Amino acid sequence: MNPEQIISSLKELMATGEAAGKVLTDPADLENYGKDWTRIYPPKPLAIVLPKTTEQVQALVQFANENRVALVPSGGRTGLSAGAVAANGEVVVAFDNMNRILDFNASDRIVRCQAGVVTEQLQNFAEENGLYYPVDFASAGSSQLGGNLSTNAGGIKVIRYGMSRDWVAGLKVVTGKGDILDLNKDLAKNNTGYDLRHLFVGAEGTLGFITEATMKLSRKPDDLTVLVLGLNDLTNTMDVLQAFQKQIDLTAYEFFSHQAMGHVLAHGQVQAPFDTEAPYYALLEFEAVSDQVMEDAMNLFEQCVENGWVLDGVISQSETQAQNLWQLRERISESIAPRTPYKNDISVVVSKVPGFLQEIDAVVTEHYPDFEIIWFGHIGDGNLHLNILKPEDMAKEDFFEKCQQVNKWVFEIVERYQGSVSAEHGVGMTKKPYLQYTRSEAEIAYMKAIKQVFDPNGIINPGKIFD
Fold this sequence. Notes:
The chain is α+β, with helices and mostly antiparallel strands. It is built from 15 helices and 18 strands. It has four domains: 3-97, Uridine Diphospho-n-acetylenolpyruvylglucosamine Reductase, domain 2, CATH 3.30.43.10; 101-219, Uridine Diphospho-n-acetylenolpyruvylglucosamine Reductase, domain 3; 224-332, 2-Layer Sandwich (Alpha-Beta Plaits); 340-444, Alpha-Beta Plaits (2-Layer Sandwich), CATH 3.30.70.2740. Strands 15-12-14-13-17-18-16 form a seven-stranded antiparallel beta sheet, sandwiched between helices. Strands 5-6-10-8-9 form a five-stranded antiparallel beta sheet. Residues 41-220 form the FAD-binding PCMH-type domain.
């Protein structure tokens, strides 16, 4: 079939059923839906399909198999690995119009959603019903549930609540063969062989499409309090973490460099937490459910100062102040975005973080002394974000090429520390050449075999994770 015939057939498919889907071919729509936040690969999709039902997705996959049409899933397009980029004439399947919350059971604390439900929409729904959905990150206002699950998104609460995977009670998927599977049926206990839902979580849409997800909810945390500490040295991040975790259950433990905070402050919307300057900062969050917890926190703070780990600190006295302190961390990505950062999302076991970060920072600084390096991340779970900022007088293409040269050195350190080249952003196309630094040859072979079972014709998100 030629492109015109494919588009015509897509329009016929989306017209079926009680709720009609859409097919978009306007250049602006192709540009918008064909990319994510990486901006490395120019989008070149053939068309954009916005289905309304699981059955329409199934019909689309069956058509794609019959005519060897490649399909690329698209959620909120906030990804950072080019996992949802359509760069080779594929048809994008966007879930913006499958955005309804379908069912809620207060007794079971579960909610069934379509894949296009926005993260913040789910968070607000949980709050309205006296519950809590804890997976949270800066893109919560635009990222979609299907995309979150496909990349097993983590965010700022992992130290307490885990990853997206930990909150999935059940999934409805359309496989690359065109079968509809209802996985786990929302059961808390179901020990009947392979749990296929967990193959789809983190698969980056390479096995099929998640169309519905039943998510578990939790009780809402009480009196969340934020403590920001100025650290004397990078290794003090672990000293402080160990000290606090012995007495207090943290809901978050983040870190950022002084350079990172400088970019946030330069925007003028946030103030420095205190007058003392420190090379690194830690942000701790916990539930201050009693006077005893607050007393413990203040005693721990004083101990950290006495030990020389902490130079200064501030603790929130209200919910508003807690939110303002969070802005120091959450506005970093936004504040450095104009500098076209080259991002690496890496992780190791928590205890190895200081040495790991110091080695990588030394390598990057040595080879690129003129580049500004910005560090921040979810240090409480071993996840670090390395951001290299583009000089204003350098072309984007030249900058990316130079940054890719340093990847080999960075990922050799990752491999030596037995870490991951992608902690939470996925592999997509940007990390595909480096998969072997985290996955063994045998693991990759098994992954390819699984892909072949679910998508024998290779039509679902081809060229992502591996070729």
